[in-house]
Structures are given as C-alpha cells and as structure tokens.
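Q: Given only this backbone (267 positions), what sequence would you predict?
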C-alpha cells in the first residue's frame, strides 16, 4: 500500500508539471486528421529566390535582401475552429536556408518589429505549423504602427472571410524600392520593404474571385478598401506571377484584372 501511494503521488506530480503538454496533446489530437496539402501545391506563385516548403505553407526567400519574397498557403475554416494552442514561442533561424538567414539579434536596436508574413494566428491549430511561423524565413522588418495597425486589421479580416467561404488561398509578400541600395537595417543588412502585399483567392465551383491589397510599411489611417489594388498591378510591381499553375489563363486574366468587392465585405 505504501509503495502504491508513492507511485500515485509521483504520477500526480508528473501530470502537474506536464499538464500543458498533455493539454496540447489531447485538445489538438484532432489536428492529425487535418489534411496536409504537401502533395500538390499548385497555388504557389513564381519565385525569384529560394523556395522552401513548410508543413502548412511555402515561402520564397531572397538571400540578397535577407528577407522573404512571399509566403503562400490555403486557409481553411476547420483550422480556425480548432482550439488555440497556448504557447510562448521564440523566434528561430531557419536551418533550411542556403544563405543562413537572419537571427534574433539582427533586429535588435533597429526600431523595426519582427513582423510575420504568415500570422501565428493562422497556424494556431497545430504546434509544428505554429512553430514554423516563428522562423526568420517568415519574418520581415515592419514598423510597429503597420504591424499592429492596418496590417493586423487585414489579417483579422482575412480570417473572417475564411469563415464565410470555408477556404481561401492566401499569398503575402514584400515590395522593395527600385533603388538598388534600398533601405536596410544597417548593422545586419536586412532590407526593409516599402510595402507589404496580400492576394486572396476564392476558388469554389460556384464562386471564383480575387482581391489584392498593397499596404505601406508605415502608419495608415485609410480604410482597408483604399488599399485595394488590381492583382495585375501587383504582378508588375513585384515581378511575381500569382496562381499561374492553379488557374486557366483566361480565368486568371479575368480575376487579376477585376475585383468584385461585394465578395470581400469588410466588417
């Protein structure tokens, strides 16, 4: 009996100190049945950098700018309905980058925030997916009043549209000055984007629509609709061809040159 009591106490102590891990396991065990689209990622745009495939998103990294060019992923309503993972994650270097990438201290003292292109909130249904949003291959220098302002507002709005349409395809990325020198964080040489963009595609049997946003990396008090741009224009600015593998040429041309804002109501 004495030995049994000791074993029970030991078990209770172990459960107490490992309760967060147990909670993540049991509450997020349903994530193993969430479809992982690693097989065919036809939604990816063209790339001018090194392309890496993470569990739930892909990215293109520009080693000469030490910054991602774009990230692309499908976002599904079923992901958002999974209980959020409680976490205190830290930023980490991406070991898959050929160039080595950047590190935490490269941003220190720069007055620029470490801004996510794939928001952590979009991947908060799966621990591995969530951790991969904290890799520096997903991080850009962002002014605080952009990161916590209009950019954050747009990220929340996209999640509302996911609830409305069940699934969206999202591409987010960076736009740099035409000046070859560009703006940099001096001590680390990380280029600072002048703008961030986001392209959202609805691709359903009964509805196909696309919208683009161009957000300045600075304070903006404009309505989200005032940042809407035709996707054709974004392609000219970035040199990226969006959804070229996924869409028939005629459909792609039509969607990229027209934006029906009725399909993207802002709450």
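A: Predicted residues:
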């Amino acid at each position: 009996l004495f030995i049994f009591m000791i074993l029970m106490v030991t078990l209770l102590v172990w459960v107490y100190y490992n309760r967060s891990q147990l909670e993540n396991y049991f509450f997020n065990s349903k994530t193993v049945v969430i479809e992982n689209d690693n097989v065919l990622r036809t939604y990816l745009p063209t790339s001018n950098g090194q392309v890496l495939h993470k569990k739930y998103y892909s990215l293109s990294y520009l080693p000469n700018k030490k910054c991602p060019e774009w990230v692309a992923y499908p976002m599904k309503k079923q992901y958002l309905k999974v209980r959020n993972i409680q976490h205190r994650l830290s930023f980490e270097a991406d070991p898959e980058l050929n160039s080595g990438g950047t590190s935490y201290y490269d941003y220190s003292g720069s007055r620029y925030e470490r801004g996510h292109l794939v928001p952590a909130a979009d991947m908060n249904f799966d621990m591995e997916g969530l951790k991969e949003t904290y890799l520096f291959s997903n991080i850009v220098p962002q002014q605080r009043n952009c990161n916590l302002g209009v950019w954050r507002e747009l990220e929340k709005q996209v999640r509302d549209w996911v609830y409305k349409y069940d699934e969206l395809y999202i591409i987010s990325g960076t736009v740099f000055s035409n000046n070859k020198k560009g703006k940099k964080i001096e001590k680390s040489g990380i280029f600072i984007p002048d703008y961030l963009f986001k392209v959202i595609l609805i691709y359903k049997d009964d509805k196909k629509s696309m919208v683009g946003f161009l957000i300045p990396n600075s304070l903006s008090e404009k309505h989200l609709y005032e940042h809407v741009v035709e996707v054709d224009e974004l392609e000219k600015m970035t040199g990226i061809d969006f959804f070229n593998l996924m869409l028939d040429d005629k459909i792609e041309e039509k969607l990229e040159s027209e934006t029906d804002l009725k399909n993207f109501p802002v709450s």
